[in-house]
Design a protein that fits this description.
Chain B: InterPro entries: RNA_pol_sigma-70-like, RNA_pol_sigma-70_dom, RNA_pol_sigma-W_bacilli, RNA_pol_sigma70_ECF_CS, RNA_pol_sigma70_r2, RNA_pol_sigma70_r4_t2, RNA_pol_sigma_r2, RNA_pol_sigma_r3/r4-like. The structure holds two protein chains of two kinds. By secondary structure, chain A is an all-alpha fold. Chain A has a domain of about 50 residues. Chain A has four helices and no strands. By secondary structure, chain B is an all-alpha fold. The N and C termini of chain B lie far apart (about 40 Å). The chains are: A mainly alpha, B mainly alpha. At the A-B interface, α3 and α4 of A face α2, α3, α6, α7 and α8 of B.
């Protein structure tokens, strides 16, 4: 297998959850034989976990009330007349 | 939740402004996170996220209720943010990337109470480094990486948010992932 083209493409397909069973088998066999690709694959998986685990961001305090205060005036009004 | 949001949107369309408050409250962190990770600094992110909600409100009649509201809302937020990135002058842009770390101390404190999936990211320095590396990506890769890994959207959803083909989303994710791999491999 051509590492640069085929194997790396399969790694990305794997990471996108789009690998067929045949392709997965092919990738697995290649990884067992190729140290360089094994490292590459490991680095890719680690990159994703690093990016994913960077802490979640929360909107600042009072965000919702600020948005509500800045909305244009209501165009329509609800009339509760009977 | 999608059903509750749908109901709220019907009320907003009828003119009930107060119903919008729950929608903002529910999506505020998601929208803010997209803006913050793409623009890099807390102040501008707040400004952009607010603008996104205001635009969603004023254009609510144009929202097709058969579709997913979050996709539509995220599209407004990413478009606004991408526009802002484009308008930035290069020198100011570099400056903003350095300033991009200012929001980190604040949310790191919030996150400190929660268990992190990986011990290694407990350090603020590493979080700052990752944040900067995401910001260093060209905007078209940055948007897909943020939507995919920080918001965990599917490839199909990302394609709908950014209005690009799924194939393009894949290519951008692959390139973005390779770029980040090179930058983060020695961390």
């Amino acid at each position: 297998m051509n590492c640069k083209e085929e194997a790396i493409a399969l790694m990305h397909k794997y990471l996108d959850d789009h690998l067929t069973q045949t392709e997965e088998k092919k990738l697995r066999m290649h990884l067992q034989a190729c140290q360089e690709c094994q490292t590459h694959f490991h680095e890719l998986k680690r990159t994703i976990s690093l990016v994913k685990s960077s802490s979640p961001v929360s909107a600042p305090q009072g965000f919702t009330s600020n948005v509500m205060a800045n909305l244009p005036k209501q165009k329509k009004r609800n009339h509760y007349t009977k | 939740m999608e059903t509750v949001i749908k109901e709220k949107i019907k009320q907003i369309k009828k003119g009930n402004q107060a119903a919008f408050e729950d929608v903002v409250s529910f999506y505020q962190n998601k929208v803010y996170q997209i803006c913050f990770r793409m623009i890099g600094n807390a102040h501008e992110a707040e400004d952009l996220a607010q603008e996104a909600f205001i635009r969603a409100y004023t254009n609510i009649d144009r929202f097709d209720e058969r579709r997913k509201f979050s996709t539509w809302l995220y599209r407004i937020a990413t478009n606004l943010t991408i526009d802002r990135i484009r308008k930035k002058k290069p020198d100011y842009f570099l400056d903003a990337e350095v300033k991009g770390t200012e929001g980190l101390s604040m949310y790191s404190q919030i996150a400190a109470d929660q268990a992190l999936p990986e011990e290694e990211v407990e350090s603020l320095e590493l979080q700052t480094y990752i944040h900067k590396e995401i910001l260093a990506l060209p905007p078209k890769y940055r948007s897909v990486i943020v939507l995919r890994f920080l918001d965990e959207l599917s490839l199909q959803e990302i394609a709908e948010v950014l209005e690009i083909p799924v194939g393009t989303v894949k290519t951008r994710i692959h390139r973005g992932r390779e770029t980040l791999r090179k930058r983060l491999r020695h961390v």
